[in-house]
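Priority: medium. Attachment 1 of 2:
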């Protein structure tokens, strides 16, 4: 699943912003992990593969802490942009799964 999203963030001439992203990653398998990133759309397009993996938790099976990470994102096109949290499961064993809870995303233009 995706989200939350911060919509219509007006990026100024600096092309920079601060992205605060929060999640708890719970691994329900003995191997693998979960990662959290974000995508940007609107005046700028950045795929989640091109933004940092801001949060990650890898086995053993349990719940990681709820963590907030701060990223300074630059290289943005001035104008309205939407930032969307994205999640991925990494190398889960058979029948494995991962949950992402306590999600939050805040973006502040600089």
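Attachment 2 of 2:
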């Amino acid at each position: 699943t995706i989200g939350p999203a911060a919509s219509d963030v007006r990026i100024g001439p600096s092309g920079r912003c601060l992205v605060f992203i929060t999640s708890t990653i719970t691994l329900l398998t003995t191997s693998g992990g979960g990662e959290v990133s974000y995508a940007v759309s609107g005046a700028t397009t950045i795929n989640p593969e091109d933004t940092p993996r801001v949060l990650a938790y890898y086995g053993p099976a349990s719940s990681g802490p709820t963590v907030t990470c701060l990223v300074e994102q630059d290289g943005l096109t001035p104008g309205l942009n939407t930032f969307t949290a994205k999640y991925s499961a990494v190398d889960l064993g058979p029948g494995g799964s991962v949950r992402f809870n306590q999600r939050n995303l805040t973006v502040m233009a600089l």
